[in-house]
Amino acid sequence: MSDTQVLIFDTTLRDGEQSPGATMTHDEKLEIASMLDDMGVDIIEAGFPIASEGDFAAVSEIAKNSVNSRICGLARANFADIDRCWEAVKHAKQNRIHTFIGTSPLHRAIPNLTMDEMADKIHQTVTHARNLCDNVQWSPMDATRTEWDYLCRVIEIAIKAGASTINIPDTVGYTAPAESADLIKRLIDTVPGADEVIFATHCHNDLGMATANSLAAVAGGARQIECTINGLGERAGNTALEEVVMALKTRHDIMPWTTGIDTTKIMAISRRVSTVSGFLVQPNKAIVGKNAFAHESGIHQDGMLKNRENFEIMRPEDVGLSGTSLPLGKHSGRAALRDKLEQLGFEVGDNQLKDIFVRFKELADRKKEVFDDDIIALVRADSGEDEDDRLQLVSMKVVCGTGGPAESTIEMEVDGKDITATAEGDGPVDASFKAIREIHPNAARLQLYQVSAVTEGTDAQATVSVRLEEDGVIATGQSANTDTVVASAKAYIHALNRLLVRRDKVGEGADAKEVSYKDLA
Ligand code: KIV
Ligand code: ZN
Description:
8-stranded parallel β-barrel, globular, binds 3-methyl-2-oxobutanoic acid
């Protein structure tokens, strides 16, 4: 590794996926891992193997399928966690155990350990991890609020016990850029053995400074950035991969460090993570937001026509956006659709293309011009329905008036049986959800219902995201349609299908209650 290389450690599948509502299915995790591997991520934190049977299975499978990336699993500071983690990551060509403990006064109080007892535990657990795996990362959780002397002491212990990466988490997003750079620099200058290991930075975005703090840490000497796609993560999220990578690429003049990321793969993975996690990307989000490369105001358009560099510091192509975006129409054929999908960064198999093409034709019949965003929504919707789903929408009819309740009649197939129900509600969506609940009674609580228009105009498609929670299990569903009520019903049914899958897994022996990495007992 050269002096100027910065390793990218992606934790979308661990810190990102643990954020409430972002739960992904097993297959989705494998798909995201393969995209991360393909785009040049150095280390993929694939999950927290002891958390559940599902996490263990996903990390093991990701480890088996990995090509270039190192596969890492998370473990708390105890032998059972570390053993389980090793059992999952050992299948990878390159693996890593990441073990951690909260070292700040607040976090030390949770397991009720004295400073000496905790130091001893760190020595034992890192030694144990190192006996299993030759690549161990250690993190003092809440490092940025840990007493300086104690932080130096425990890092020295972890290095002596064999950790080759020391991660400095800003667990609660508390630090600021100058402090972040200074902390890493002082640690490297002070702790014996620090120059033999790689220092990593792991920032949360509570004050909106995660990207700045991570880059500052690199300036201070960190050579690994921990991040997630779209900044997915609990609360305000983690450092966004696309932001740190593009900042290093675009401002190489003042930040002379490089990453191994193929930036042209950024948009495709951003869209996929948004779809499978159900977390929509805000339109003005840096790098991957819908408006990040849109220049709509007159002055900007004029300037852009004269010289793109007037308002563009990065080229859209560099992040995987196609330069031109000619809309498709009802005469466009399958080859044109495949071409467009490729330009948009989607790799679809022949069967998926067939399904998307059918939907595309239906849409093109209703809508004169089918824009890039419509196509993206079609791919999202395609991932939202499966012919193996136990619940299928067959048809629906909604009657709304100005004076009274709306009425919805829904016909569904439930495990192959045709059932119809009619319900009244406070508006067409409420009535439709009630009818669906009559057909498939359930106690799932609606945590989120979100509608967004994909393109402009009254014939625009709406994308709907629905998040449900039942007995601590969370599932999200999405759909897109030119009819918002149809998209809503489909998204609701999609989420219910995903809840059923998760419940079936529990029935097959997976843990009903998952352990969080914050359960420190
Ligand atoms: O934010 C944090 O402290 C973490 C640790 C488990 C590294 O995610
Ligand atoms: Zn974290």
